[in-house]
Design goal:
This protein is α+β, with helices and mostly antiparallel strands. Helix content is 47%, strand content 11%. Strands 1, 2, 3, 4, 5, 8 and 9 form a seven-stranded antiparallel β-sheet that branches. The two termini are 37 Å apart. The longest helix is centred in the first third of the chain and has 21 residues. The protein contains 20 helices and eleven strands.
Length: 441
Amino acid sequence: MPVRPSVSEAELEAHLSGICFKTGPPRRIGVEIELLVHDAHNPRCPVSPDRMHQAARALRAQPLYSCLTFEPGGQLELSSLPADSLTACVEAVAADLARVRPVLRELGLGLAGHGHNPWHPPRRVLTAPRYNAMEAYFDRHGPAGRSMMCGTASVQVCVDAGHEEPGPLGLGRRWLLAHLLGAVLAAAFANSPLAEGRPTGYRTTRQAIWTQIDPGRTLAPPQDAEPRTAWARYALDAPVMCVRSQDGPWDVPEGLTFREWIRTGLPRPVTREDLDYHVTTLFPPVRPRGHLELRMIDAQPGPDGWIVPLAVTAALFDDPEAAEFAYRTVKPLAETAGLRPPPENPLWRTAARDGLTDPELGAAAVACFAAAQEALPRLGAAPGIRAAVAEFTERYVARGRCPADDQLNALPAADAGGPDPAGGGPGTAAEGRLIRGKDSL
C-alpha cells in the first residue's frame, strides 16, 4: 500500500464529525440481517468450508437488492439499501430472502435466526487478511472474540441521525434514546440462551459476549458529552486493530491507539482511509456511520422474525409522537444504568441475563411496544408488518417473555438448569465460563 502524506489530528477529528453524524429530517431506514447457515438435515452437523464457498458463489450470482456478505464463521448477511419507508425496506429484503432460500435449499443448506450458534463452538471458515488480523487481535483478550466473529448473528437496524435542532427527532435526543431503549430492545428480542446445546445463564448470550471483548472498541462512548465530540474522542483513543498492507499479513500492533499512530507516524504515516477503516473495527452498541446503527438485537426465529425489531425500532425513532413517548418511558432507566457505559452497566447486564422477566425492563417494553403499534399506521406500515408486531407483542412482550424463553422451555429438564444465585434466569457452568472468559463458548 503506497504511503501518502500524513494528515493532522485536527483534520481527522473534523473528518469523523463530518461523516459519522449526517443530520436532517429522518426519512430513511435500513436493516442488516445476519443468519446462521446450517445443514438442512442436521443443524448440529457443521457445514464444511467447501460447502460454504459453494453457497457463496451460487448466491452472488443472484440479482439481489441488498448487499450480500459472509461473516468469518459463515454467517450470511444481507444489508439493505437505505429505503424511503419501512414498507419499502421490508419488501426489498423479503424479496432477497425469497431468492436466497431456494438456492441454499438446493445445496442442502438452511438459514436459522439465533443470536448465538446453539449447536457447536466457533469455527472460522473465511481467511481474508481482515479476519486473520481480527482473530489475532481478539485472542489477546480471551476466547470471546472468536465467539463473536464466528458464532453470533443479529438484526441491525439503521436509522437517520436526526435533526440538528433539539426535540424528539433531534440528534442529541436520538443518541440518548438509542443507548437507553437499546437495553429494552436487547431484552425483548433476546434469542441466544444456548451454547453447544446447554444454557449459558443468559437470554442473550450474544450480548454477554460483547462485555468480554476489548472494552476500548465495544463499550459506548461517554453519554454526558455532545455526540460528535464524544465519538471523535472515542474513535481516536480506541486501539488500532490492524495496519493494512498489500503484501503479506497485516500488522496487529499491541497497545497502539489511533491517536498515537497519528502522532508518531509509526509503523507508517496515517491516511484518511486508515481512519475510515479503523471505524469499521469499532463495535459499540450504537455505531454512527452517517446514520445510527443499532447493533444490540439478536437474530430472530422464523423466516420473517427480523421484520418485528425493524418495525418497532423504526416506529419508536421516526414517528415524533412515539419517539417522545419512548424517551419519557426509558429516561428513568438511566438511574439503573448508572455511570458505566453500555453494554457493561447494570441495566444492559440485566437485559442480557433476564430479558423481560426483569420488572423494570418488562414494563418499559410493554409501554414502548404499545406506542410502536400506534405509530405504525402513521408511518404507512403495511398490514402484514402491523400484524407481525401485534403477534410478537401478544406472544412475548405482554407475557414478560422473549424468544429465548421458548428455547429454554424446550430443553429437557436435566439440561435446563435452575435459577442462578443472583436470581436471574438459568445458571450453569457455562455462565461461569462466560463471565471469566477462560473457556470457549
